[in-house]
Give the backbone structure.
Amino acid sequence: MQIFSYQPPSIPWLDIRYIDRDIIIINKPSGLLSNPGIAEYTHDCALTRLQQRFKDAILVHRLDCATSGIMVFARNKKAESSLKTQFQNRQTQKTYIAEVDGILKQQSGVIELAIAADKLNPPKQIVSASGKTAITHYKVLAQKPASCLVELKPVTGRTHQLRVHMLALGHTILGDDFYGEDQVINAAKRLQLHAQTLSFTHPYSGKAMQFSSAHPFSSSLK
């Protein structure tokens, strides 16, 4: 079983992109948990950092610790209920950018592979016919000799979905120390996965909202 070494980044302490009376949008850095775990050392996370400034901040969804990018938090129960319902009913739209190992044969496609918990290796997930439906749209944006920059649009929101789906395609996300071999892990200083855009309906105004954070990966891809 893997030992989780947690050393959350302190700069910036918080990257707030938008705030009103109902929601808060942040750009979460890689290496910071979305919410605290059971262990005391996991108390420092995106949620608790926000609650130090805004006591009413409420967790709505999560990004993996190693994944960076846009997150939305609610500031009251009505906003929380509305946003969680949108996520559950697949009424939100999410776009991720990843740099993956190897060159994809098909420039775009849809991955439909059910995912289940790997009971022998928690918290890992595996592709399993008995798992929950998981759907991801992908498109190659650019490529290097040995890697590709890929746009990923998940329809569902299973644990580690994008990481497991890219592994299943044979193109593990660079820097993935959960699912990658040594060569893939050592190819990047962090997991090369970023939540670049998030779209949803504002819980009070009903207005369509979209927030973006440019991915931090190499711009030298050709």
Remarks:
- The first helix runs from residue 46 to 53.
